[in-house]
Amino acid sequence: MISTPSIAPFDAAPLAGKTVLVTGGAQGIGRGIAQAVLGAGGNVFIGDLDAEAGKACIDEWNVGKRAAFAVLDVSHETSVRRWMAAARKRFGRIDGLVNNAGIANPHTGPLDELSLDHWNRYLATNLTGPFLCSKHALADLKQHKGAVINIASTRALQSEADSEAYAATKGGLLAFTHALAISAGPDVRVNAILPGWIATDAWRKPAERQAPSLSRRDHAQHPAGRVGIPEDIGALVVLLLSAQSSFITGQHFVVDGGMTIKMQYV
Length: 266
What we know:
With 266 residues, the protein is an alpha/beta fold. It has a single domain (19-261), classed as 3-Layer(aba) Sandwich (Rossmann fold), CATH 3.40.50.720. 39% of the residues lie in helices and 14% in strands. It is built from seven helices and seven strands, in the order βαβαβαβαβαβααβ. A seven-stranded parallel β-sheet has the order 3-2-1-4-5-6-7, with helices on both faces. β5, α5 (164-184) and β6 (189-195) form a beta-alpha-beta unit. α1 packs across α7, α3 (77-91) runs parallel beside α4 and α4 (116-143) packs parallel to α5 (164-184).
C-alpha cells in the first residue's frame, strides 16, 4: 500500500550554507537581490564597477563573513576571471549566480543616429557580461547543483521608441537563458526574471540615496496598485535559487505589477 504523502514544511532559511554571486550587486535591484539572499540565510559576493557603493553595502549590512565585495567589469573576461577566483577563495564554493549587471538606460536615440560603438557597449555589458560570468561559474555550479538567474526586462517583450539596443540585449538574454538551461541541465537550472518599473532611488549608495518621487497615477496604472521595489525581485530570486524550485528551469518570469497584461487604450 502506498503511504499518504506528508505535509512538507517550508524552509525558513532556504539558502543557508549556500554562496550566491550577484553582479551589479551594490545598488538598485542588485542590492535588493543581495539583501534577499542574506535574509534567506545565504552568503553573498557582490561585484560592481562602483567601489564606493560596494564598500557601503558591506559596512551597512554588517553581517561579518557572510558578505563580500570586489570590483567587477562584466564586459572584460579578465575582470570576470579575477572576480570568480576571489569568490572561490573567500567562500570556497559557488551555488548561485545572478547576472544583474547591465546598462540600465533603455533609450539610445533614433536608430539611424546610433553609433556602432554605442550599440556594442550595450551588447558587451548586457549580453556578453552574463555569458562570461556564466561561463566561468559553470563548473562550480555543476559541482553543487546550482542555479543561474538572468535579470532581463519587460522590454524584452514590449518596447518604446528608440530603445533597440537595450531591447535586443534583453531579448537575447531570454534566448541565452533557455539555451543554457538545456546545455547545463540537469545539474544547473537557469531562469530569467523580467522586472517592470522598479523604484530604486532608496537603494543607491549613501551619497545619492533619496526617497522615490512617485505620484498616485504612477502607482494606480499598475494592476497591483503600486510601483515595484527591489524586494519584489529579491523574493523571486530566493525562490528560484532554492530547492523549492528544483523543477523549474529555462523559464522567464515577469515581475511588473501586471503592466504587460494590461490593455493600453488611449
